[in-house]
Amino acid sequence: MKSADLSGRWTGVYFYPVDAEFNPFDDLPPTPFEAQLHDAGGDVTGSTLEPDALGPAGAPPIPARLEGHHFDGQLVFTKFPNGGGQTHTIDYVGAISADGNSISGRWVIHGDWSGPVQTQRNLAPAVTALDVAATA
Question: Is 128 within the bounds of a domain?
């Protein structure tokens, strides 16, 4: 079976677990994110952008870079956040759907906590300022 090319724009959401220190009442909202992936023969790099769900109100979004690979229907990558006071990395592992348009899995901050993550390929073409100007 040929592996899907994961290059492109993706959107997703991850969920926080119940945690005695950070989420004792299980009231942290699901966190949406956007990702841009580049797949070079199974080696995956890219970037993500997500709201700072644990920061103060109005905190800027947190960008991150990612590096990983996929093989035999499974994507594995590490996310390196750049903001929000985060100094840890987050590891992800997920199952790629048969059509290559969704990924379901888990995120892990080793020694701390983990939770589920769902991601969908954004199949709509990107809208640019030139596209908007052309329709005006």
Answer: no
Whether the CB-CB separation of 97 and 103 falls below 8 Å is answered with: yes
Check which CATH number belongs to the domain holding 28 and give it: 2.40.128.120
Q: Is 39 helix (H, G, I), strand (E, B) or coil?
A: strand
Structure confidence at residue 118 (pLDDT):
98
Name the residue among 43, 42, 46 with its Cα closest to residue 12.
46
Residue type for position 21: E
Average pLDDT over residues 10-33: 88
Give strand ranges (E) for 52-98. 62-71, 74-81, 90-96
pLDDT tens track for 57-83: 899 999 999 999 999 999 999 999 998
How many separate domains does the chain show?
1
